[in-house]
């Protein structure tokens, strides 16, 4: 949530991210949603492929329960995990037992909520510029930009990846909470370099919306080059990115999602959602409790899945995206 890419919550509209360099994947691997394809290894033939990606796993018990349900009983095809959060161990235990599922690391340099906070994985003494006076990660992207030393950013991001690997999680990709890692040239370079070093795709998007890119000038400048570098190593980027983090009406929100899917362009699109159950725990943490609960409801609805299928869209994972890109 970007949350997880710090996509601005544009009111009543989906955020479409698009980048320089138009390169469409010739093949991806489709997710079969029936019981016979639990490991999701069938090749895709559709021109339009969709990763349904839930951010913020590990953030809370409510988010964990909803994410697991949406991946097991719904049609969420991928998620990313916030390693510094208090409920990471619970989600890590489940993820380590399900290598057939698709898990990324939601590289986290922020702790944004009012009274529910977390600190760095590496330890406060090793990354003092990443924490506020109370020892928690900074609340905003701007604070990280102003205060964080790149060397300490790298220490912390490595610590998050390593902790997930040590927990036995099979990783499929890296992405970023609130878009912070993408917001300066130094952090962007670290992000891409870690993807190359750990041999993991990173969430880079070929087609960037100029309205969003205005807040990420270094990303706009380097996006094409990094996309080519990663793809040359068999670590494909996605083509488009959407997030709908607005609205108060279930029917209207569901219709907005379906309209967006209907209008998808050829290529690989990721839709970022935020699963959670709208319970007392989540209500105490964040004002987005309705949106998270509604996303869970929508992406566990068999009728929504049926309509996506009827549009000729293949739901895939990051693992399948990579397999399709490296297949001869």
Number of domains: 1
User: Architecture, according to CATH?
Assistant: Alpha-Beta Barrel
Beta-strand segment tally: 8
**Can you give the helix content as a percent range?**
25-40%
Low-confidence runs of at least 5 consecutive residues: 1-46
Q: Output the number of helix runs.
A: 12
- CATH fold label: TIM Barrel
C-alpha Rg, in Å? 18 Å
Could you characterize what this model shows?
With 328 residues, this protein is of the alpha/beta class. The protein has one domain (15-326): TIM Barrel (Alpha-Beta Barrel). It has 12 helices and 8 strands. The chain has helices spanning 61-72, 88-96, 141-147, 150-166, 185-198, 210-213, 217-232, 250-262, 280-285, 289-298, 302-310, 318-326, and strands at residues 15-17, 48-57, 78-81, 103-107, 171-176, 240-243, 267-273, 314-316. Strands 1, 2, 3, 4, 5, 6, 7 and 8 form an 8-stranded mixed β-sheet that branches. Strand 2 (48-57), helix 1 (61-72) and strand 3 (78-81) form a beta-alpha-beta unit. 52% of the residues are buried. Mean pLDDT is 88; it is low at 1-46.
């Amino acid at each position: 949530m970007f949350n997880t890419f710090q996509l601005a919550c544009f009111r009543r509209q989906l955020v479409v991210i698009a980048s320089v360099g138009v390169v469409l994947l010739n093949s991806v691997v489709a997710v079969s949603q029936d019981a016979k394809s639990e490991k999701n290894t069938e090749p895709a033939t559709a021109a339009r492929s969709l990763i349904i990606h839930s951010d913020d796993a590990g953030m809370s018990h409510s988010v964990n329960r909803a994410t697991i349900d949406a991946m097991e009983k719904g049609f969420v095809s991928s998620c990313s995990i916030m390693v510094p959060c208090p409920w990471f161990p619970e989600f890590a235990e489940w993820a380590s037992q399900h290598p057939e599922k698709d898990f990324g690391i939601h590289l986290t340099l922020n702790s944004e909520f009012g009274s529910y906070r977390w600190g760095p994985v590496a330890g406060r003494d090793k990354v003092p510029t990443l924490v506020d006076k109370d020892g928690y990660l900074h609340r905003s992207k701007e604070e990280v930009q102003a205060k964080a030393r790149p060397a300490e950013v790298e220490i912390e991001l490595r610590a998050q990846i390593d902790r997930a690997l040590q927990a036995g999680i099979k990783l499929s990709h890296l992405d970023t909470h609130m878009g912070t890692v993408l917001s300066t040239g130094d952090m962007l370079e670290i992000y891409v370099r870690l993807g190359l070093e750990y041999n993991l795709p990173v969430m880079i998007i070929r087609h960037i919306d100029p309205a969003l890119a205005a807040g990420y000038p270094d990303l706009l400048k380097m996006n094409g080059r990094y996309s080519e570098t990663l793809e040359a190593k068999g670590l494909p980027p996605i083509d488009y990115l959407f997030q709908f983090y607005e609205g108060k009406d279930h029917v209207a929100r569901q219709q907005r999602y379906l309209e967006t899917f209907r209008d998808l362009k050829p290529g690989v699109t990721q839709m970022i959602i935020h699963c959670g159950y709208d319970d007392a725990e989540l209500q105490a943490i964040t004002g987005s409790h309705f949106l998270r609960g509604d996303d869970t409801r929508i992406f566990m609805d068999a009728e929504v899945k049926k309509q996506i299928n009827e549009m000729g869209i293949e739901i895939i994972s990051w693992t399948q995206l990579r397999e399709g890109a490296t297949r001869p």
